[in-house]
Amino acid sequence: MSINVYLSGEIHTDWRQKIIASCQGEEITFSSAVTNHEASDAAGDVLGAEESNFWRDHKSAKVNGIRTKNMIEKCDVAVIRFGDKYKQWNAAFDAGYCAALGKPFITLHSEDIIHPLKEVDGAAHAWATTPEQVVEILKYTLRNQ
Amino acid sequence: MSINVYLSGEIHTDWRQKIIASCQGEEITFSSAVTNHEASDAAGDVLGAEESNFWRDHKSAKVNGIRTKNMIEKCDVAVIRFGDKYKQWNAAFDAGYCAALGKPFITLHSEDIIHPLKEVDGAAHAWATTPEQVVEILKYTLRNQ
Amino acid sequence: MSINVYLSGEIHTDWRQKIIASCQGEEITFSSAVTNHEASDAAGDVLGAEESNFWRDHKSAKVNGIRTKNMIEKCDVAVIRFGDKYKQWNAAFDAGYCAALGKPFITLHSEDIIHPLKEVDGAAHAWATTPEQVVEILKYTLRNQ
Amino acid sequence: MSINVYLSGEIHTDWRQKIIASCQGEEITFSSAVTNHEASDAAGDVLGAEESNFWRDHKSAKVNGIRTKNMIEKCDVAVIRFGDKYKQWNAAFDAGYCAALGKPFITLHSEDIIHPLKEVDGAAHAWATTPEQVVEILKYTLRNQ
Amino acid sequence: MSINVYLSGEIHTDWRQKIIASCQGEEITFSSAVTNHEASDAAGDVLGAEESNFWRDHKSAKVNGIRTKNMIEKCDVAVIRFGDKYKQWNAAFDAGYCAALGKPFITLHSEDIIHPLKEVDGAAHAWATTPEQVVEILKYTLRNQ
Amino acid sequence: MSINVYLSGEIHTDWRQKIIASCQGEEITFSSAVTNHEASDAAGDVLGAEESNFWRDHKSAKVNGIRTKNMIEKCDVAVIRFGDKYKQWNAAFDAGYCAALGKPFITLHSEDIIHPLKEVDGAAHAWATTPEQVVEILKYTLRNQ
Amino acid sequence: MSINVYLSGEIHTDWRQKIIASCQGEEITFSSAVTNHEASDAAGDVLGAEESNFWRDHKSAKVNGIRTKNMIEKCDVAVIRFGDKYKQWNAAFDAGYCAALGKPFITLHSEDIIHPLKEVDGAAHAWATTPEQVVEILKYTLRNQ
Amino acid sequence: MSINVYLSGEIHTDWRQKIIASCQGEEITFSSAVTNHEASDAAGDVLGAEESNFWRDHKSAKVNGIRTKNMIEKCDVAVIRFGDKYKQWNAAFDAGYCAALGKPFITLHSEDIIHPLKEVDGAAHAWATTPEQVVEILKYTLRNQ
Predict the structure, then answer these.
(1) For residue C32, what is the nearest residue in chain B, using CA coordinates?
(2) What is the pLDDT of residues F66-103, one digit of tens each?
(3) Residue C115: CB partners within 8 Å, gap ≥ 6?
(4) pLDDT of amino acid H60
(5) Exposed, middle or buried by CB within 10 Å (0-12, 13-18, 19+), for G4?
(6) Residue H119 · residue F65 · CB < 8 Å
(7) Are A86 and B88 in contact (CB under 8 A)?
(8) Which member of B40, B47, B110, H140 has the lowest number of beta carbons within 10 Å of its beta carbon?
(9) G115 CA to chain H: closest CA distance, Å?
């Protein structure tokens, strides 16, 4: 068995790198939205400049959507990370998308945001507070009984 | 034609009441998560007290989920409201859930949160800034050509 | 048995009215995109003016999409009309949408556009050249054996 | 990650070749309906001659449909090209098919046909006017963050 | 609870009438393909005469398909009758259609055709040899515990 | 809003009656497998006697399946009761069926069988120990905010 | 592109061998129900002897169903052959199964059974009378434009 | 053809080992829940200790669910074993999950528990009493006609 893991959410800390590094050698393929903030915001610029911020964002969001929609639909499990700052509505959006498709997902966040994340955690298969816990669960998923 | 409209998100202003009042006489049925904050947080308490906040929230979120899951799956269109305060991850979660099911949804939020909502708006059928705009669109959806 | 019939396509002749009038008394509910051309083009204007034609059209198309998406998904059979003029790509789009959902549809068009419509007709359950033929088929669908 | 890209629509210019050539070396597999016009029109002739044009077209359309139906259902993203001439209803049909399946698609057309394509563009993830823009977006979809 | 029952297959004996008559007063709605053989064969004639038998049959089969496709997809249970004569491939086709959709179906046929029907019976929820048995099962399905 | 509630599992105590009685006046429709044990075991007998116990059970199970399959697929929420005695594998089977369809379900069982039910409870939206708790949750699901 | 082709139906002539031999070197994988009649009829015997023909057939049909269900669901196109003799209800059953799943299929039969096969042909993408025609169509499906 | 076989249920005898050993050399990939009882019960412990047995079980069940949900959804056929002891509700849950997804499954159990398993067996494609019978059926599924 091998698994595809989609890493969604916060882009300001190195949680992705930690998880990927610790899973070296496992039969895991990781995918992720483009995590370079500027590149992501500019994803639609090639299609022409926009005067309005709304439409610039709109075009980039939809171009990014080609990527993320495919990644979510092909993953076996998602890890969805909420940091301490920013709205991170895209992460919660991904969680809802996973839930509707029946894709299992693991949330990764600290204890102080339990309450606002209760609906998201309620649909998750696991809540982790550290990347190490996520790694343990992913490895468990692949263990040879 | 009649339509079912699910109203999701912010519970601190009267946007729901405005929309419902202005749609009196139309063939629209509205549904909504329980918007009484305390009642919603306590939805699972009947099943027994919990020491941990996480599990209390978990139980309530899942009891609420019985209600909201059915409402979203039966609606024809959702209106998803983001206010100026709070995380409102449940609203973004509902948006992702709608997107994955192919349910059209309208977002309702002010201009200053365009950027963090770009993925959500990118999947929406319309972005409105006032309840009146939402009402116009709902009525249009029902017009006799 | 009663059926929902979605009438899609050309808006410059009275084919819809003919079909509806001839089906009076049958257990048929008809639905249709907004056929008032100006109203349809302006469907998104309530959400704010746009400088660019593309975005004005975009907003209106998506508002109209709330309506048509629901109508197609709820119909039992669609009638898709192609006239002699205009591109009518929305009609072909609706046909593809029906085909992917497995919704039976009847095309209504004259003989001189058989060739460009061959893929659309190939997925249709019937090709009619007059509204009267469509009416006969709809009534047949409802006959008491 | 590798992606399957279905190229649909206009067959009289070299847009397919341009895109494929510029994506050499990327992990992209391209597919397409048979673009040799005569071969495509004759796809069903092996099954026996027809006196009526309608049935000849019908047989060929359905034989082609075996190919295109599989290609669309297996693609990760479609590029749908509308040229300046001809009806091209098959391209709009493919767009509707993609939309109903939730397959992301990119439209490729010039600015002067924005209005008749508004429903198609409304369901698309991106609108490009040049093959080069399409190439940029496809490469972005595959970038290593 | 009320149920929709689709009656498929043989049209030369009065098994449909027996079942319907014995279920008078129950909350059962029955549906059926057009059982008037000549009317069924002529279902597509309104769309124009055909020289070839194949195309005449083709058109009628597809017009009938609008009706039967909807009936099967809306039924809760199908009864599929195989008589002693004729090929009755449409009945076996309906059985396969039900099986793929997960619709429960009851076969109704005599003991001497058990062997050629083994795949059909293998997918059925019940095999009956008389209309009376079918009636008992349908009534059981509706019983108030 | 009104809801359909499917009551599954143990048939030796009056938990169904308690729940139904306490929900009088609510917009709830209840359904259930046939709970008369002897009638349920004999459901297939009308189709002919069997020498082997396996085939007698098989026929009855499949006749019952026509009923329960429809009830589960039409319910909005299921209540699945596990008593202290018997294997009750049909109840766990129903739970798995609900889980795969994404139907929310509430388990109803005492604390001493938590461990063997952990997979079932892990997929449930709520675990109740008394019918009164179930009633509270069902009423909450219908409350007018 | 490579395709999976499921070969269904008549087992008394060498149509399968002809098609497979003529497709040597193409990227086609063929699958088929077990075509050794005796082996197929005995597929369930390992599970224990049955006194009744019905149950012997039943067990074998269901064991064969494990194989054929997977093959049909994984194929890209099916070829369904009807010969001049026997009931061949399993072939028509497979056709209905394909139709409900939206799997394209090609029928292969002589002209004298057009009428009883009209519903099956009505749902098919092509009707061939010789294996050579089927081969041409399969090769066309794979051609490099 | 190769197949994925999911082995579910009883963990106290060596039925899995027997089946796997006898299928050496066949194109079969086996998967299974973690069958080390203690490891399975502790699957969620990495996420933090729980005072309540219910929540400890809950967390572990959901972590295990990531694994088993993927395995069931990817398998071509499941073998579900019921032993003589314990409740084994997880096995019946898996059977219901398979049934709802349309995954064929084989039950493996002795004759004395036929009656409580009648609903599970009613949805199965085969009932075996020995691992050797399962092996024969799996090999049959792969045979070269």
Answers:
(1) B145
(2) 999 999 999 999 999 999 899 999 999 999 999 999 99
(3) D53, D57
(4) 98
(5) middle
(6) yes
(7) no
(8) B110
(9) 31
Half-sphere exposure of B34 (CA within 13 A, CB side): 23
F126 pLDDT above the threshold of 90: yes
| Complete edge-to-edge strand list for the sheet that includes strand D28-32 | D28-32, D3-9, D77-81, D105-108, D126-128
Contact (CB, 8 A) for C82 and C91? yes
Question: Which residue from F minimizes the CA distance to H95?
Answer: F93
Is E63 at the interface with chain C, CB within 8 A?
Answer: yes
Q: Which of G45, G102, G100, G57 is nearest to G76 (CA)?
A: G102
**Overall size of chain E counted in residues:** 145
The four Cα atoms H116, E141, C143, E65 give a dihedral, to 10 degrees, of: 0
Task: Give the whole-angstrom CA distance, residue B10 versus residue F145.
Answer: 14
- The number of helix segments (H) and strand segments (E) in chain A equals 6, 5
Token output for G58: 């039943």
Give backbone dihedrals phi and psi of G56, rounded to 5 degrees, phi first: -60, -50
Six token digits for residue B73: 């799956």
Q: For G106-134, write each residue's pLDDT tens digit.
A: 999 999 999 999 999 999 999 999 999 99
H109/H127 Cα distance (integer angstroms): 8
A117's enclosing H/E stretch is none
**CB-side neighbour CA atoms (13 Å) of D101:** 25
Distance CA C119, CA D70 (A): 15
ipTM here: 0.97
Chain D residue with CA closest to G4: the answer is D70
Closest by Cα among A56, A11, A60 to A32: A11
Euclidean distance between CA atoms E130 and E128, whole angstroms? 6
Q: Looking up tokens 């009642």, which residue turns up?
A: B39
Return the sign of the alpha-carbon dihedral for residues B126, B132, B135, B140.
Answer: negative
In which region does residue B9 sit, left (phi positive, over 0), alpha (psi from -120 to 50) or beta (all else)?
A: left
Query: Among candidates G21, G34, G17, G12, which has minimal Cα distance to G86?
Result: G12
pLDDT tens for B85-144 read 899 999 999 999 999 999 999 999 999 999 999 999 999 999 999 999 999 999 999 998
Question: What is this structure's pTM?
Answer: 0.98
Owner of token pair 């409402």: B71
CB C89 within 8 A of CB D107: no
Which H or E element spans position D9? strand D3-9
Residue F95 has which token pair? Answer: 């739970």
B122: nearest CB among A58, A111, A116:
A58
**Angstrom distance (rounded) from CA E35 to CA E12:** 9
Beta bridge partners of residue H106, listed in sequence order: H79, H126
Distance CA F4, CA F74 (A): 7
B19 by DSSP, 3-state: which?
A: helix
CA dihedral for H84, H90, H96, H100, sign (positive or negative): negative
Tokens 């068009």 appear where? C109
Burial F91-101 (b: 16+ CB within 10 A, else e): bbbbbbbbbbb
> Which two tokens mark B77?
């269109």
Q: pLDDT digits over E90-111, tens only?
A: 999 999 999 999 999 999 999 9
Token readout for H137 is 């059926």
At residue A29, what are phi and psi to the nearest 5 degrees?
-110, 125
Q: Residue G70: list chain H partners with CB under 8 A.
A: 1, 3, 76-77, 104, 141
Q: Which DSSP helix (H) or strand (E) runs through A87? A: none
pLDDT score of H1 more than 80? no
* CA angle in degrees (0–180, nearest 5) for A107-A109-B38: 90
Ranges of chain C with pLDDT below 50:
none
CA distance to partner chain H, nearest, from residue F56 (Å): 9
CA distances for E33 relative to D16, E5, E39, angstroms? 47, 12, 11
Q: Per DSSP, which regions of D68-123 are E strands?
A: 77-81, 105-108
